[in-house]
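Standup, Tuesday
Yesterday: got the pipeline producing structure tokens again.
Today: sanity-check two examples.
Blockers: none.

Example 1:
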Amino acid sequence: MRSRTALRREIEALLRKGDLEALESLAVRESQVAGVLMQYLYDPHNPLHWRALEGLGRVAHVQPGQVQKIITRLLWLLNEDSGSFGWGAAAALGEIGRHELGVVADIIPMFCGFLEEPFSRVPMLWGIGRLAEVHPGELHEVIPFILPALEDRDPQVRGLGAWALGKLKEPRARESLRKLLEDESPVELYDQGELRRLTVARLAREALDALEGACHSPG
């Protein structure tokens, strides 16, 4: 087994290249990959932060036991006693569930509480949106805690709330989404491998389009 310093160096090189398949292969050989990836979750302004989140999801798929070992640590980072340093912990839970639902299935009810805490609301909305793209049916109990986001004072909360509700195709959000169609406040969203700079209005429109698509789909 290589030193942790050498392992971190290799992981960082893979994140910079965006080579998540090679990261999966490394996780099969090295048991500390998930732990090293956690070190990138603390600063959302670090360009490797988002790729590390995606990496955790990919590692969860090929080595669920390795990621299961860090779930307790992620939850502790979301506890008020942690000092709120784990900005990306909530996002990580959603990304992990997207790729390996069984690792987080039992703690999805805790997402409701994370949505009520100001420091974890934005990353939790992102994590829920990511999870909802693959497993929307697992998040019914969380939806009532997302709906208030559309009226939040923070445009980042409004925008990610709209995005997540669009992924969930939640009809109860329709009227509130329509009220946001002229909200040109800026929002940042990591999606499709890049950090996109959008507006609340655009995300609300995309969410409404998703709702309309759901209404007209067969069945």
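Example 2:
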Amino acid sequence: MQRWYLKLLLLMPDHLHMLIGVPGDAQLSNLIRDFKRITNRIAKIDWQRNFFDHRVRHDESLDEKAAYIRANPVRAGLIADGEEWPYATDASDLNSGPEVSISRTAGD
């Protein structure tokens, strides 16, 4: 099992956003596969097979990516701007840890 670091997780009605730190040699597809298997076993979530990922580059801001993820419920019309989305958790320091990936995994 690969080690990874959760920075931000935001659950939407039909998908989730994760901002995670992974070692540079980690195979993201294996990590997501393992995550889906575990959450399927524990929570009986029936995930779709695919996912979308985006590796944060050195010139990109983790804070900007986190703000984009946190704004997702507002853009979807689920909450008003300034309201807190109850289905989110984040780490206190988004600027520490190894290389970071954003993964979007959809499920019904």
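Quick observation on example 2: The two ends are 26 Å apart (CA to CA). Residues 5-107 form one domain.
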